[in-house]
Specification:
Distance between the termini: 47 Å
Shape: rod-shaped
Helix content: over 70%
Radius of gyration: 20 Å
Number of helices: 2
């Protein structure tokens, strides 16, 4: 599992993760990749692709939620300032 300190560095790594995904997708698009003799490698690549895609999706979702929460706090803060005047 990821620690909180690691989560803060993830948004900057999304392009790196997406680059890894592209590399793995490129590799898996080669017709010989799916040959029986390459069975161990295609299982490994498939697992890596699944994990990386899930991670990118989760980080993007968290970033969206963080943005939504920041907007909500701004609205709340503006509302409190209006009440004080």
């Amino acid at each position: 599992s990821l620690q909180t300190s690691n989560l803060k560095s993830l948004p900057s790594t999304i392009p790196q993760l997406q680059s890894q995904i592209s590399d793995l997708e490129r590799e898996s698009s080669d017709p010989t990749f799916w040959d029986d003799s390459n069975n161990k490698r295609n299982k490994s690549v498939t697992q890596q692709l699944s994990t990386l895609n899930r991670l990118v999706n989760r980080v993007q979702q968290w970033n969206e939620w963080e943005g939504d929460a920041a907007t909500a706090f701004e609205i709340l803060d503006d509302s409190e300032c209006d009440d004080e005047t």
